[in-house]
TrEMBL record:
Belongs to the binding-protein-dependent transport system permease family. The keyword Transport applies. It comes from Chengkuizengella axinellae. It is a multi-pass membrane protein. This is ABC transporter permease subunit. The chain crosses the membrane at residues 20-45, 66-88, 141-161, 167-188, 195-214.
């Protein structure tokens, strides 16, 4: 049947009950995703600058390594990470999950910033330097305003990919790091479908809200900047 035979709030009552641990899972998911996004920005800003605007020997191999998580099956990647993290004592920790989430999310941030850097060139920075702008002022008034759309695009993809990670979180977290996909998966794979559906709607709502928030902040930034210039 396409439509349910009856309607009930039972699933939602369970989802938001204290015993379900939903709020803790949402907090962990958002915390991990935000930290991963920040780390990716810090790594990809200089990396994208070099890849987009500097020619060097072996550049294609460096790009291949950085983009490889998009090509290599996730299970192969996470098994190698898992074995390494066992020796380093990073399994069953939030730090380990954060580091593991960087692998599948970094290529998206890198690609977005590479495209932004490729449309920038060096002329604007050189003109700002000739006008007396120092390194920090060039970064603040020339680089970041131009790169901001790429940062937002990469951050949006990073947040969505990190929020949706189940396999990596399950293997590296060992059940000790509980995120929303960890709670959702058992209900979808053979448990209570109604509760699984409620968690799915909740997950989709969080993802859409995150995208809306980033889009709103970007629009507000440009609106404020235009008023400041005027």
């Amino acid at each position: 049947m396409l439509l349910p035979s009856d309607f009930s709030l039972r699933a939602w009552e369970y989802v938001f009950s204290p015993s379900a641990g939903t709020w803790g899972a949402i907090g962990s998911s958002l915390c991990i995703a935000c930290i991963v996004t920040l780390v990716n920005i810090l790594i990809c800003l200089p990396a994208a600058n070099v890849i987009a605007r500097v020619n060097f020997k072996g550049k294609i191999w460096v790009e291949g390594i950085l983009y490889s998580p998009l090509i290599i099956p996730p299970f192969i990647t996470v098994m190698g990470i898992h074995i390494t993290f066992i020796h380093l004592g990073l399994t069953e920790t939030i730090l380990g999950v954060i580091l593991a989430h960087i692998a599948p999310t970094l290529p998206y941030m890198l690609r977005a910033l590479v495209i932004s850097y490729q449309t920038l060139g060096f002329s604007w920075e050189e003109q700002a330097k000739m006008l007396g702008a120092g390194t920090l002022n060039r970064l603040r008034f020339v680089l970041l305003p131009h790169l901001l759309p790429g940062i937002v695009a990469g951050s949006s993809l990073t947040l969505l990919v990190s929020l949706s990670q189940y396999l990596i979180t399950f293997l590296i977290g060992g059940g000790q790091v509980v995120t929303l996909p960890i709670i959702l998966f058992p209900f979808i794979s053979g448990g209570d479908i109604a509760i699984g559906s409620a968690y799915t709607i909740l997950f989709a709502g969080i993802a859409l809200f995150s995208l809306w928030l980033m889009n709103s902040l970007l629009k507000r930034y440009y609106k404020t900047r235009i008023l400041f210039i005027r």
